[in-house]
Amino acid sequence: MLSRLVALGIVLAATASAAELKVTQYDGPTECDEANKVKSGDLLGMHYTGTIDESSATGVKGKQFDSSRVRGVVFDTKIGVGAVIPGWDQGLIGLCKGAKAILVIPPDMGYGEKGAGDDIPGGATLNFDVEVMTLTTPPEEPSLFAELDVNEDDRLSPAEVLAFFQKRNPDMMALPEGLMENEDNDKDGFISWDEFSGPKGKTPPKKDEL
User: What pLDDT is recorded for position 199?
Assistant: First the structure.
């Protein structure tokens, strides 16, 4: 009985381990300033080679299915916003510009049970040899919320929103139908920073300390 439990524990441990995202850097800088470290929202230029990992339960182990290096074209993408598979969105965060690393990506952070095309079957564990070639942090988007919040109380009243529209159309006498209803999720008569769906920056406006 004990031997069976031990064997079961080994199997469960191996299964849990196989389900984890693994990032192993093998070349390039391991320390860098924040400007040269990959963060969510950064624009990256990447070289990569994708293969079926040796630990994969499906697919031809070691088979290459894609490579920017073979094409000779750097792959550009934005990280942390869902533009790529979750294994990339999470696995590339924290790497420095110039870093080379191996990402071993479990199915649920890759292409899941559906797979992708003929070379990546459902349930495949993927192996990506990646290199961070370029890294750009885009400027923070302007805050329309701050512009509308004339009295700086961190919420938008119907009057403030209407005043904004009237700057562009003096003849406008009422808000577009449904605007407040769609934005004011808690129905308190105001639009908070969290509720506001327009450009508002990454963080709420800071109040001056007394």
Answer: 83
Burial zone of 67 (CB within 10 Å; 0-12 exposed, 13-18 middle, 19+ buried): middle
> What DSSP state is assigned to residue 143?
B
Instruction: Express each pLDDT in 156-180 by its tens digit.
Output: 999 999 999 898 888 888 888 889 9
Do residues 91 and 79 make contact, with C-beta atoms less than 8 angstroms apart?
no
Residue among 37, 27, 24 nearest 97 (CA) = 37
Sign of the CA dihedral running 201, 45, 78, 53:
negative
135 in Cβ contact with 36 (< 8 Å) = yes
Rounded mean pLDDT of 14-27?
Answer: 74
Other Cβ atoms within 10 Å of 99 Cβ, number: 23
Q: Which two tokens stand for residue 155?
A: 């919420």
Domains and CATH numbers, the chain: 20-136 (3.10.50.40), 139-210 (1.10.238.10)
Whole-angstrom Cα distance, residue 49 to residue 85?
A: 15
> Is the pLDDT score of 202 beyond 50?
yes
Burial of residue 64 (number of CB atoms within 10 Å: 0-12, 13-18, 19+): middle
